[in-house]
Amino acid sequence: MALGFFENGARRRLDQILAVDLGSRATKAVHLQRRGDGFSLTRFALLDAPIFEKTMSPEMLAEHLKAVNQAVQAKTKMVSLTASVNDALVRHVEMPRMPVEDMRLILKHNSRGYLQQDLTNYVFDCHVIPAGGDGKVEPAKVAANQGKQKVLVAGAKKQLVEDFVEGAKHAGLVADQIVPGLIGPVNAFEKAMPEVFAKEVVALVDIGFKCTSICILQEGELILSRVVGMGGDRLTTAISETMNISYAEAEGIKVGMPGEVQSALESVLMPLGRELRASIDFFEHQQDRPVAAAYLTGGSARSELILQCLQHELMIECKTWNPVSFLHNGLPSAQAAELEHVSAQLAVAVGAGLAAL
Questions:
Q1: CA dist 222 to 80, 187, 272, Å?
Q2: What is the dihedral of CA 97, 101, 106, 107, to 10 degrees?
Q3: What are phi and psi of 141, to 5 degrees?
Q4: Cβ neighbours of residue 316 under 8 Å, at least 6 residues apart?
Q5: Quick count: other Cβ atoms within 10 Å of Cβ 290?
Q6: For labelling alongside 270, which of 150, 257, 336, 342 has CA 20 to 30 A away?
Q7: d(CA 194, CA 73)
Q8: Residue 74, Cβ neighbours under 10 Å: how many?
Q9: Residues whose CB falls within 8 Å of the CB of residue 325, separated by 6 or more in sequence, listed in order
């Protein structure tokens, strides 16, 4: 699903894309290229994110995208950018049956009616969810709702979208898509784990720097999503304070965690786990379906201890997955050796690239 916020006026089937996940601590970028019926990963890059107070200016974004493009050495000017989980909302709503363009217009003028809040100067995109896709919808309910359809709505401030488009332009790039970061792991998971995606009920948990997102998928449909204001930064800070070491040192040992910081880590992971479990409980109560497992991405997901702690709190199996496993490896040898170490951090960027391709 794309949910791209805007039409660039020249939608066409792309052969390649530069996808950039603008994180709050690190920017992750991938260059994806079509290869037969699949896709190839030809380059990736991780760079420190720019430091700014409230919003990144188009000029700052342009300079950053120039550095990203130079690091990736992409052979395309088309770029797919992500809006962070705090900058883009993703909601399920029921809307009348009509073209997506009309839905966008209705949401623009009546966001309160559908999203329960006034979202002035926002732009929206919509993804129509097929009715009764799992074959379990009662015919009477389908008949009663023939005039409506389930829609996944994404929204972001118009100014943010315009700044992204302008920043890309000044970097010599063309913004093909601006995708909610929340959607990235869902897109990548569909390709990397197609059987699980299509047939099971699972939670996708992406541990970012400041926030952690959870998306619950039921047989290929995104049913619930939520953002929790705790992430890898909180974990690193806890290690730093417990061991009386610098933040940089704590970040360096977070994945290969020494046993002496386990208690400090558990004290931070406990409230995060409870918030994630609350989302799972809500889903299970509403849908009367159990969540089979949680699949984790993000830099912190590489820690076996973090996985074990979250599994204890969530009370379901927690495991990592590889968001680049379905991609043909077209990387230079130096990057190919590094890929396994960073792949868990590329889920959002890969998913944003797939939205454009």
A1: 21, 10, 21
A2: 110
A3: -70, -35
A4: 203, 280, 291, 292, 293, 294
A5: 10
A6: 342
A7: 30
A8: 25
A9: 192
Which residue, 61, 101, 104, 63, is CA-closest to 84?
A: 61
Residue located via tokens 């020249």: 10
Q: How confident is the model at residue 235, as a pLDDT?
A: 87
pLDDT value of residue 146: 61
Among residues 259, 272, 204, which one has the least CA distance to residue 233?
A: 272
3-class SS string, the chain = CCCCCCCCCCCCCCCEEEEEEECCCEEEEEEEEEECCEEEEEEEEEEECCCCCCCCCHHHHHHHHHHHHHHHCCCCCEEEEEECCCCEEEEEEEEECCCHHHHHHHHHHCHHHHHCCCCCCEEEEEEECCCCCCCCCCHHHHHHCCCEEEEEEEEEEHHHHHHHHHHHHHCCCEEEEEEEHHHHHHHHHHHHCHHHHHHCEEEEEEECCCCEEEEEEECCEEEEEEEECCCHHHHHHHHHHHHCCCHHHHHHHCCCCCHHHHHHHHHHHHHHHHHHHHHHHHHHHHHCCCCCEEEEECHHHHCHHHHHHHHHHHCCEEEECCCCCCCEECCCHHHHHHHHHHHHHCHHHHHHHHHHC
CA 80/CA 82 separation, integer angstroms: 7
**Residue 289 CB neighbour total at 10 angstroms:** 14
CA angle 55, 342, 254 (to 5 degrees): 85
Could you report the average pLDDT of every consecutive run of 10 residues in the chain (357 residues)? 55 86 95 94 96 87 97 95 92 92 93 93 90 48 64 94 96 94 95 97 96 96 94 88 86 71 82 96 97 96 90 96 97 93 96 93
Strand partners, 321: none
Domains of the chain (ranges; CATH) run 16-189+326-356 (3.30.420.40), 194-320 (3.30.420.40)
Amino acid (1-letter code) at residue 187: N
pLDDT at 250: 84
